[in-house]
């Protein structure tokens, strides 16, 4: 075989070895927040591709509008106006490759190395990784079951400013917070807007789980409570159709969109996917969401029951009213980070709290996702998890 070319010192100073990022699955896979595959609307999506292509397929010969398919933007804007009370049109939005891309370009547009970015005390690790990648100083705000604690928010901002730090924005996941599962109350949202407003700080709202409510009342979006353009909003089709679609969106004031857009590469999102989703939305996307939510509540209940049967009262959790995961607390000192790889090899995968923490604390927590596995797998997998932890003397079941 010929000698392989060595790129060695040709790599740019900013590049880093991120590996190919292979996805690994264990027998009982509770690690990633996937939606329910059983209710994935494959037939309707196939019909949507056919109808969309018969009508507009030839337009694929064009590069599409840089902000993404205008019809899909219009349909999303209508959905957000109707269901998240947002005053928004297609022109206030750009489509992105999942909301992950939207988050990345907003972070790049707003963050200089060393800037403080406020986050919940445990936060979606994809965002945490991107914030770290661009040098943000991620500072955690304390939370309770109603969401961010406004007094702590005020205190932290005041302290950071006094220390000469630039506090750039607050990133929050107010609906079915990932990983903690709570939904921020309306009262709290108003208080958070008030405190951040007082300090002149924008709120970056990540609302990708808002549709997955299977109990209780919806709480209106942060975006709907602000009239000044201070809230930046991202959403996604990953959890309501599938992550494989890679379709998300960013809603923000025109200047923020213009700056964020300067970091987007590869042109507009796939018109193939946009056409499919637009056609699917013209059918009954809400019926599909409803079906998925019915499947999810049964899975959540199965996980709650299995936890109750297999773990004693020293392990605690709150039951989320929606979303795709449960957040489980083990007694202080239990180290679920140290054994994560071994437990994976034994057949159960999860993420532990320290992976979601800006400070790396919280290895006595785990997030267990219930969206993808079947009810039977949830029952067997939680029992297996308890057995493995017991055998490995991590925690007595
Ligand atoms: C809170 C949150 N935001 C954003 C994303 C990114 O999703 P996607 O890029 O697939 O839209 C996820 C995925 O798990 C998430 O949990």
Quick summary of this structure?
The chain is α/β, with parallel strands linked by helices and 397 residues long. It contains eleven helices and 15 strands.
Distance between the termini: 54 Å
Total strand count, please?
15
Morphology call = globular
* CATH architecture descriptor name of the largest domain: 3-Layer(aba) Sandwich
Major sheet characteristics: 7 strands, mixed
**Total number of helical segments?**
11
What is the CATH level 1 assignment of the largest domain?
Alpha Beta
Strand order of the largest sheet: 2-10-9-8-7-3-4
3D architecture notes:
With 397 residues, the protein is an alpha/beta fold. It folds into 2 domains: 24-41 and 287-391, Aspartate Aminotransferase, domain 1, CATH 3.90.1150; 43-282, Aspartate Aminotransferase, domain 2 (3-Layer(aba) Sandwich), CATH 3.40.640.10. 37% of the residues lie in helices and 14% in strands. It contains 11 helices and 15 strands. The chain has helices at 42-56, 70-83, 98-110, 125-133, 150-162, 186-198, 254-261, 271-282, 285-310, 340-346, 375-391; strands at 28-29, 93-96, 116-120, 137-141, 143-144, 147-148, 167-172, 203-206, 231-236, 248-251, 316-317, 325-329, 348-349, 351-352, 365-369. The chain has a 7-stranded mixed beta sheet, sandwiched between helices. A 4-stranded antiparallel beta sheet has the order 11-12-15-14, with no helix packed on it. Strands 1-13 form a two-stranded parallel ribbon. The longest helix is centred in the last third of the chain and has 26 residues, at 285-310. The protein binds pyridoxal-5'-phosphate. Pyridoxal-5'-phosphate (PLP) binds at residues 33, 98-100, 124, 126, 173, 178, 206, 208, 236, 238, 243, 248.
């Amino acid at each position: 075989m010929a000698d392989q070319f060595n790129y060695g010192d040709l790599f740019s100073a900013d590049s880093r070895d991120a590996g190919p990022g292979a996805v690994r699955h264990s027998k009982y896979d509770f690690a990633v927040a996937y939606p329910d595959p059983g209710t994935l609307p494959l037939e309707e999506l196939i019909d949507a591709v056919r109808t969309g292509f018969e009508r507009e397929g030839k337009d694929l010969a064009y590069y599409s509008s840089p902000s993404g398919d205008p019809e899909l933007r219009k349909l999303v804007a209508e959905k957000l106006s109707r269901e998240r009370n947002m005053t928004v049109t297609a022109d206030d939005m750009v489509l992105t490759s999942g909301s992950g891309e939207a988050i990345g370009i907003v972070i790049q547009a707003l963050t200089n190395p060393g800037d403080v970015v406020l986050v919940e005390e445990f936060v979606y690790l994809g965002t945490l990784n991107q914030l770290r990648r661009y040098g943000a100083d991620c500072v955690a705000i304390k939370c309770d079951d109603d969401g961010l604690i406004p007094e702590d928010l005020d205190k932290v901002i005041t302290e950071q400013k006094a220390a000469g730090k630039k506090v750039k924005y607050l990133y929050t996941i107010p609906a079915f917070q990932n990983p903690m599962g709570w939904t921020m109350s309306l009262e709290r949202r108003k208080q958070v807007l008030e405190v951040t407003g007082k300090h002149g700080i924008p709120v970056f709202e990540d609302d990708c789980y808002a549709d997955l409510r299977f109990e209780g009342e919806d709480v209106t979006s942060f975006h709907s409570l602000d009239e000044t353009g201070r809230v930046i909003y991202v959403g996604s089709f990953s959890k309501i159709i599938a992550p494989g679609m890679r379709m998300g969106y960013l809603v923000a004031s025109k200047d923020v969109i213009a700056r964020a857009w300067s970091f987007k590469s590869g042109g507009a999102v796939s018109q193939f996917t946009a056409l499919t989703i637009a056609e699917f939305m013209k059918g009954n996307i809400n019926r599909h969401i409803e079906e998925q939510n019915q499947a999810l509540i049964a899975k959540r209940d199965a996980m709650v029951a299995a936890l109750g049967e297999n773990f004693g009262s020293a392990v605690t959790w709150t039951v989320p009213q929606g979303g795709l995961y449960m957040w489980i607390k083990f007694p202080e000192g239990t180290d679920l980070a140290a054994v994560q790889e071994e437990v994976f090899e034994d057949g159960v995968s999860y993420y532990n709290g320290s992976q979601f923490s800006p400070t790396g604390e919280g290895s006595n927590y785990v997030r267990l996702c219930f969206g993808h596995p079947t009810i039977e797998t949830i029952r067997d997998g939680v029992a297996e998890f308890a057995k493995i932890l017991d055998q490995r003397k991590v925690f007595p079941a």
